[in-house]
Amino acid sequence: MSFKHIFQACLMAPFASLVTSNPISPRAKTDSFSESQKLADPKFGPIPGEDSIYNEYYGVEAPFPGYLRDPVLPTEKGAPGVDDVVWQNLLSAEWIIFDFYQQAVEAFNESAFIQAGMPNNTYKRIQEIRNNEAGHLRIFQNQISPTSVKPGACTHRFPFYDPISFLALVTVLEISSMAFLTGLVQQAKLPASQAAMMTIAEVETRHEVWTLIEIWKTNPFGGPSDTVFPYANQVLDTTNGFIVPGSCPKQNPEYPSPRQKLPALGAAKDTKSLTPGSNIGLSFTDPTNQPDFDKNTQYYAVFFHGLHNVSVPIDTTSWPEKEIRVTIPAQFETKGVIVAALADTPGAPTKENIVAGPGIILEQPAELAVKLV
Ligand SMILES: *[C@@H]1O[C@H](CO)[C@@H](O)[C@H](O)[C@H]1NC(C)=O
Ligand SMILES: *[C@@H]1O[C@H](CO)[C@@H](O)[C@H](O)[C@H]1NC(C)=O
Ligand SMILES: *[C@@H]1O[C@H](CO)[C@@H](O)[C@H](O)[C@H]1NC(C)=O
Predict the structure, then answer these.
(1) Which of 121, 237, 242, 354 has the smallest number of CB atoms closer than 10 Å to its CB?
(2) Residue 297 has pLDDT above 60, yes or no
(3) C-alpha distance from residue 226 to each of 117, 181, 318, 330, 337 (Å)
(4) Residues 147 and 233 in one domain
(5) What are the beta bridge partners of residue 343?
(6) pLDDT single digits (tens) 133-192
(7) Are residues 284 and 168 in the same domain?
(8) Is the pTM here over 0.85, yes or no?
(9) 178 with 335: CB under 8 angstroms?
């Protein structure tokens, strides 16, 4: 197994370069378009919070509504709901996460995790997380008003090869979801939307804590606050690396909306450590989308951790001939995640100030971070 690949996954951006190497093929589309349209009725099918399918279902086949993969067309004319775009972004992201777990449920079984040295209930827990994510699909569909399309599923591919590389990705993706929701909640206008998003972040936190305790046998506490990163769509954009190009339903809105298409940011291949105080080289992992640095502008690497950010000036004048190097702020605790982005202004006060990234740097568990290098 290649830990180098998972290490790159810790800075989510390089996913794009990995998606073609995954041997696990995506699920075939089996549903019919007309069946999916029934999802317009929030009372259709099992109701999240009431039905055990979203908790204790131990089948391999995708649970409701995960097999109804077509977009759900609007059933009413009129203005979109105030938070529809935010929920559409979240639903498209949820299709990626749901498929991530569903593909693992299909690829592995109970013995695969036991043979990898994991607790004997690991496969069950993965199925239960998969079920929770199916519930998220349904919850987000219901949050989008009848005047807007509910995005359907694209075809997704993930860079995992075996149970351990899958579980490493679980830990990265769950904590990334937690950080990304701190940004998305700031886009929602209705307090009820904000509360609903908070409940989802809490569920992702439970998943994360389960991996820390049961899988990595580590202290689950992540410091007094998790990390806020306000530009949620930039995080979502990095997950486009999981989407097979051209595979999205044509009725889907652009994902994410709006999309900045920033150059992906990663760490150089020879990186030995990503803990605070480490000096690392930066890499821009998508050869078709490289940054365009202005010779007369001072750029910064802005690191977000907890409720704060720290800006470190970087030398871009000799790039690309000379690698850009930066030291991860030593004052941060080795907990949770650090989100890194390059900006043309200290603190990146607006999303337009960001010129590359973000990359998500996993800090916990430390053993995993070391192995991943
Ligand atoms: C798990 O999968 C392996 C490999 O495909 C197979 O040999 C084994 O019988 C399966 N175990 C169970 C419990 O289904
Ligand atoms: C699973 O593991 C637990 C804890 O190690 C053990 O008590 C239990 O007997 C095991 N169950 C099975 C079915 O092997
Ligand atoms: C980063 O921190 C600075 C100083 O506290 C603050 O002004 C700025 O808004 C923060 N940036 C973001 C994106 O939150």
Answers:
(1) 121
(2) yes
(3) 29, 11, 35, 18, 8
(4) yes
(5) 300, 354
(6) 999 999 999 999 999 999 999 999 999 999 999 999 999 999 999 999 999 999 999 999
(7) no
(8) yes
(9) no
